[in-house]
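seq:
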Amino acid sequence: MKNILITGGLGYIGGALLRELNPSNFGIIRILDNLSVGKVTSMMNLSENTSDNTMQYSPELVIGDIRTKEEDVFPAMENVTTVIHLAGVTTLPQYSPEMIGRTMSINVSGTETLLDVAEDCGVSKFIYASTCNVYGNNSKLNLSEGDPIDPLNPYARTKYLAEQEVLKRKSLNPLCLRLATNYGWSPGIRWNLVINKFVMYKAMKEPLSVYGEGNNWRAFIHVQDTARAFLHGLEKNLEGIYNVGDVNLTVQDIVRLLNYDNITYFPEREKSSYHVSFDKFEKTGFAPVVSIESGIRDLELRFGYVQKN
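struct:
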C-alpha cells in the first residue's frame, strides 16, 4: 500500500486533493506545511464515502519547512513511498532582490532538499507541481511539452529550474505536471487568481482590472480537476512532463462568461500569452469533469448573488 507525503498540503490545491483521494488506497497520508499560506481548515471535515456509510479520516500533519532537512523533511518522509510536491512561493508582491532570493531558496533549493531526502528514504514516485507559466509569451497555438519555454518572471523561472532538477532523479520515477491557472472553490482558495478574483470583484460590484486589451491567452483548470490529475498521474505511474488543463481563454472571454461590464483598463505590465495543448495528458485517459461555466457558477453561488435553479 502506498504511503503519501503532500508538501504544501494545506494550500489551495492541497485542500482539494485531500478531498479527492481515497484514504483506503493509502497506508499513510501525511502533510508537510509551514502554515505560511496553508490553512488548517483544509484538513477538516475529510471523509471517505463507502457503500454503507461515511467514515471520517485525518491526515498526519508535520509543521515544517521543505528546506530544513534534518528537523522537518526527514521526519516527514519516514516510510513514505510517494511524494506530491505542491509547496512553493506562487506569487511575488514585488520583484525585489530579497523576494527573488526567497523564491529561489524555497522553489529550487527546497525542491532539491526534498529530492535528496526522497532518494535517501527510497521513495518510488515523486510528482511535482510545475506551471504552464513557463511558456511565457508565445504566439503559437496549442503549445506542446516539447515547445520552447520562455519564463518571464522569477516565479516561472524557479518553477522551471526545479522541474528540470526533478526530471534528473530517475530513481524517483519523476512526473512534472505543468498546471494551467487554477480557479474554483477549495478550503484554501486563493483570491489573487484571475477567475476567482473577477468573481469576487463582481460580487462586490467593483471594477475588473484588465491590463492591456485583454486578448492574451491563458490556460485554465478547476482546482478539483487539478487534484484529480495528480491522482491520475499516480495511478497510471506516468513519468516526464505533461501539460494539465481544461480550456484556453483570453481575459475578454472570462469577462463575457461573467456577463459583467464594469471594467477598468490599465497599461500592460508584462506581455505574457500562451495557448496550451493538453492532448498528451488526455491521451492517458484523463478528462476534466468541471466545466468553466459550472465552476464559475459555483463560485457565484457561494457569494450568494445568483439564485439556484
